[in-house]
Amino acid sequence: MTKYYISDLSKVGLPAASTDDSNHNTFDVIVVGGGTAGCALAARLSEDPSISVLLLEAGGSGTSLLFSRIPSAYSKLFKNPKHVFQFYTEPQTDAQNEKKFWPRALFRPKAKMLGGCSAINAQMAQYGAPGDFDEWAKIIGDDAWNWANFSGSFKKFEKYTASTSYPDVDISVKGSSGPVEVGYNSYYSESSKDFVESCVKKGIPMNHDFNTTKGPNGVNRISMWSSCLALSGTDSNSVRPFTVTYINKDVSRVSTESAYLTPDVLARSNLKVVINASVTKVLFHKSGDGETKAVGVEFAKDRNGKVWRAKANEEVVLCGGAIHSPQVSYPIKLTVNRSPFNTLQLLLLSGVGASAHLKEHKIPVVHDLPGVGQNLVDHPVVDFWFKDKSKLAPSFMVPSGPMDLVKTIKWVALYLLKNGAGILGTNWGEAASFVRSDDPQLFPRDEYPIQVAKDSTSGPTSPDLEIFITTLAYKKHGAWTWGFPTFSIHACLLRPLSRGAVTLKSDSPWEHPAMDPKYLTDRDDVARLVKGGRFCLNLARTEPISSRIDHTDAEGLDGNTYLKSDEELEKIVRDRVQTLYHPTSTCRMAPLAEGGVVDSHLRVYGIKGLRVCDASIFPEIVSGHTAGASIAVGEKGADILKADLRPNK
Ligand SMILES: Cc1cc2nc3c(=O)[nH]c(=O)nc-3n(C[C@H](O)[C@H](O)[C@H](O)COP(=O)(O)OP(=O)(O)OC[C@H]3O[C@@H](n4cnc5c(N)ncnc54)[C@H](O)[C@@H]3O)c2cc1C
């Protein structure tokens, strides 16, 4: 695929300082960031041959990387700065004041490649709850974003192929002709099967498809939308995984690069996809009547590379993700020249954001927009580790000696030669359940005495906790494991109330911004995670998974942690809390008066020709995994732009 991409920046840009006014660097729309949403947006927009599109991506191709394609191997990329941005959060004062990494040291999963995080994520295709999107529509005051309407964008990207193995999935509600294949991974571990059976025993009803409109199903004793992705029966021979993943028939990851940037799309004369092109600035033009318009961007290969510029006739769309989109918006140059690309005198380093913050970094203010970078929210997760009595856990995948490497090579060969066969086909997060922490059946007061003050869900049928299993227990985001079989059960807080921010550390686009998610600053977040943690521990003592676990309290594992008090559990929560890699909402789609950055057409308030289209626009974080909604935002963004730019088509 790499052959279709442009890596010579002079092919689409002019030197930043040049006074050349030729048009080879002029496009109708410039998309900044070829990630999860960006690839979808650029591909859909360029379906209209009258719209010329330039897509600038900081990294290279994700599909060319074997570790991205093999479902289980993505974490092997985390250490490579060429493919993954290396971020740290600010110290988290409510999480034992530890420096929490986002991604953490030696382990940095914020993708820098085409496909973005869809190229390195765990592929779990659960999109959130219908109530989330009804809440979005209410916040922004536009029904186009409610579930009834926005669900069309999910269906549009989806390609689900019906299978007799999954007769309970209602295929009439699934997309069947979109570019993004969703299906089932080839590998499903024994521990995940046991997890699902134990969830059912605990009272979580089965849910054969997380992504439908239906609310609590059947005799469901819990009030939630998505209950448990589960098995078709309790007989383990009939167990089937129900975790839908972004996967194709060859058991290869489906990213938005592989799905949308196909050879026929890349052959379009009105689409240019450029790799290794980091946008360093958005360029603005201020007209005589005081209107500020985005008119182009500057970009470079790296910090020391030559700086180029391209012109946008109509729109610049930021798709850099929830960390980079606000960062790119901050340090922008304002051209006050009336013909910006004739003499292009970039007179003022300027910015869009809170004026006080911009002034702190001596960045003159283009537009005072206090919401930029604010409202950072992420899903915090706490892991519980168990020793698996079986010999099945794939500990060799975090090699501790030559024998492990030999095993890995054997499995890679099997995967490559036998159509994705074997354990490398696991996406790690094979099974999950979604629950409400206020469900009295699942969380009876005598077992779960800790008090939660506020309902943070998006509606009565939406969950606030996810309980999921990974086939291997690990620390350091997968870089370390015990030298014997293990697995983890995790409690993830789906609707945190704590809010943080992305702010600048300097005016340099090459310096990472400060990310402060402020984990656990809201007391309810701690209480919910204590409840979720205790649920994980109780689940671990429920058959059949209980029999799989060595319950001695050895080697820092959690076989006996259920004996701990809530106070002790709270300490564990604060010690272990980590990111589930779902930052959102830093350029929120919300009314200006409520800290919004974009309106319902994704237009940045107060600036013409500048939009944002990625997970940063989520008005609130979804109660689930964030890739699906990011792709759907890309789809919807394209529909909106096409209609706004070519209203008569
Ligand atoms: C390890 C991991 C596991 C995850 N697991 C799941 C999961 O199982 N299921 C799920 O639904 N979600 C999962 N997620 C979350 C999900 O993948 C993300 O929320 C989603 O992909 C974000 O999409 P985005 O378009 O907002 O940003 P991204 O996909 O991050 O795209 C941003 C793109 O912009 C580029 N870029 C940034 N700055 C610039 C610049 N200045 N110039 C040019 N290009 C730039 C980046 O290189 C990147 O390609 C996971 C994420 C990670 C990291």
TrEMBL record:
Residues 27-328 form the Glucose-methanol-choline oxidoreductase N-terminal domain. Its cofactor is FAD. InterPro entries: FAD/NAD-bd_sf, GMC_OxRdtase, GMC_OxRdtase_N, GMC_OxRtase_C. Residues 496-634 form the Glucose-methanol-choline oxidoreductase C-terminal domain. Pfam families: GMC_oxred_C (PF05199), GMC_oxred_N (PF00732). Keywords: FAD, Flavoprotein. It comes from the Eukaryota. PANTHER family: CHOLINE DEHYDROGENASE, MITOCHONDRIAL, GLUCOSE-METHANOL-CHOLINE GMC OXIDOREDUCTASE. Belongs to the GMC oxidoreductase family. This is Alcohol oxidase. It comes from Marasmius crinis-equi. The lineage of its organism: Eukaryota, Fungi, Dikarya, Basidiomycota, Agaricomycotina.
